[in-house]
Amino acid sequence: MSSALLEDVETSAPPPPQCHDQQIHSTRHQVIVKCEDTMKLLTGLVFCSLVLAVSGGVFSFVREAAQGSWDMWRAYQDMKEANFIGADKYFHARGNYDAARRGPGGAWAAEVISTMKLLTGLVFCSLVLAVSGGVFSFMKEAALGSWDMWRAIRDLNEANFIGSQRYFYARGKYDAARRGPGGAWAAEMIR
């Protein structure tokens, strides 16, 4: 009988108290497990987003941009080889067309390269030719002149009249030249 009472006392007794270190270790273990679960979730999300991005066309955009850059380079090389006055417009248009045919990446590359052509000229004129006293004003005038030319070209595209390009280009050049030497330079570079 004493053994039955002893078993009842052992089973109904509260668990032995844990020391403070064991409670902290238990809490740390729970936190570590939660962090591991969070890291697994984040890793899964990153992996899924990469897989979806690959199937969504991110790499095709990069490939199109590289091919569009190559088209622009090939047109530039052909222009240098032709060495004919006024041929630059044709070859730039051909390079832009070939690059844009590649897709959105090619069109983006053509736009960036064309913009860089203008910016390279701005930097060259302001640094090498040492525009005196007004490097920043020259660049400001050139930027505003570029805006005037862009506005004239946009208006030309909206008007869509046969033979109206002379008027709009002349208007853009006039507006740009009124800005100052930088604007006149930008109008000549954009043509």
From TrEMBL:
It holds the Pfam family SAA. GO terms for biological process: acute-phase response. GO terms for cellular component: high-density lipoprotein particle. The chain crosses the membrane at residues 41-62, 118-139. Residues 1-23 are annotated as: Disordered. InterPro entries: Serum_amyloid_A, Synovial_Prolif_Regulator. Keywords: Acute phase, HDL, Membrane, Transmembrane, Transmembrane helix. Major acute phase reactant. Apolipoprotein of the HDL complex. Belongs to the SAA family. PANTHER family: SERUM AMYLOID A (PTHR23424), SERUM AMYLOID A PROTEIN (PTHR23424:SF29). This is Serum amyloid A protein. It comes from Marmota monax (Woodchuck).
